[in-house]
């Protein structure tokens, strides 16, 4: 059965290594017959959460920017995929800001169950991604019907395009193919 898959590339860098991971996940998910939408944050206006909590009653944010639209797409997705570069051993700020702005989903009847994380970093050590996983898991823990269904980490990649031929690309494709 076809799933609605939302892939969110959070990198501020167009065509970066984490976005390349996202593209491979998209390719795999489409090859498997899923309905896939990819959103990039580098070209979006996303402001910080004000902490007003109005969204807990309205299921919509009072800030009308691109995050509001993305969050509404998250609400109806079966699968959500976040792709991020690792900055200082954590997710990039753009991803964290979007997660904060997804607060309207907390009290909503969201559809997503499976969440995936794709990450790329200059550092090669496998633990480099741990901070991003912990941060995303903290968000997921607020949604009792959701789970972290898989992660892919590409270490040792810095400049745009350096990820070409990295084994993580095949892993991202296969993960997408098996959503």
From TrEMBL:
EC annotation from Swiss-Prot or TrEMBL: 1.7.-.-
The keyword Flavoprotein belongs to this UniProt entry's keyword annotation: yes
NADPH-dependent FMN reductase-like domain ranges (all copies): 4-119
One Pfam family it belongs to: FMN_red
The organism's place on the tree of life at top rank: Bacteria
Protein name per Swiss-Prot or TrEMBL: Flavin reductase
Keywords of the record: Flavoprotein, FMN, Oxidoreductase
GO molecular function: oxidoreductase activity
Species of the source: Pseudoflavonifractor capillosus ATCC 29799
